[in-house]
Design goal:
Number of helices: 3
Largest sheet: 9 strands, mixed
Strand content: 25-35%
Shape: elongated
Distance between the termini: 95 Å
Protein name: POTRA domain-containing protein
CATH architecture of the largest domain: 3-Layer(aba) Sandwich
Number of domains: 2
Order of helices and strands: HEEEEEEEHEEEHEE
CATH class of the largest domain: Alpha Beta
Number of strands: 12
Helix content: 10-25%
Strand order of the largest sheet: 6-5-4-7-8-9-10-11-12
């Protein structure tokens, strides 16, 4: 009797249509245009595991897989990444949306004129593709700190450039002085410098502000 019960369970799980996936539902499928979700149809619902991940869907922040046994359905839910900035490779005339971690996840427009969002122009001779990191983690963290500094001090940026990655430097052309940053160091110390120059009335006469040396600021009038 026990053998018959076990055999029935094996048949039910492996050979019966009871656990065969009959339908697939996808929410946010446009974030993974190269993924064939319908491949799941006909698979065993109990043991099914998708053969794709976030690397297959660089525009997605997450992928959830829900199995609905009564309906014999698999539901995929994809959530989009947040757009942190636009990164433009000038030599290729290509721009990408990047997320908060510095990963390129979608093509973006090349916006000209005063910046209403974060846009970095990369003058280095390299290629960038979807799913690639624009900078290593430490350098990207310092670049984000530069944007925080500019935004919190309400400094309007006309252009933000990474001219040559070999030198690990960036430059912001603003509505005031040109500001130089090192991507190797956190530029947050520059806040006190700008506030002091503003307080003394000298800020409007400054031509450039150099924050490339940790803890030291140089400027020209």
């Amino acid at each position: 009797m026990l053998l018959l019960t076990a055999g029935g369970a094996v048949y039910l799980i492996w050979f019966s249509p009871v656990f065969v996936i009959q339908a697939v539902e996808v929410e946010g499928g446009e974030l993974a245009p190269g993924v064939d979700f319908d491949k799941a149809v006909g698979e065993n619902l109990i043991f099914y595991k998708p053969d794709f991940n976030l690397e297959s869907a660089p525009q997605a922040a997450f992928i959830e897989v829900d199995k609905e046994y009564l309906r014999r359905t698999v539901k995929f839910t994809l959530g989009s990444k947040e757009r942190y900035a636009i990164w433009c490779i000038e030599i290729k005339a290509e721009c990408f949306w990047i997320d908060e971690g510095g990963t390129a996840f979608a093509l973006a427009p090349d916006i000209k004129g005063p910046l209403v969002l974060r846009l970095i122009r990369d003058g280095s001779e390299r290629e960038l593709s979807l799913g690639s990191k624009v900078l290593d983690e430490d350098m990207f963290g310092n670049l984000k700190a530069a944007f925080v500094l500019l935004e919190e001090l309400d400094i309007s940026v006309q252009e933000f450039r990474v001219e040559n990655l070999k030198f690990r430097e960036a430059v912001a052309k603003t509505n005031g002085p040109t500001i130089y940053f090192s991507l190797q160091d956190d530029p947050s110390f520059g806040r006190a410098v700008v506030e002091q120059l503003r307080g003394s009335g000298e800020w409007s006469a400054v031509n450039y502000l150099d924050l490339r040396v940790p803890g030291r600021a140089y400027y020209s009038q």
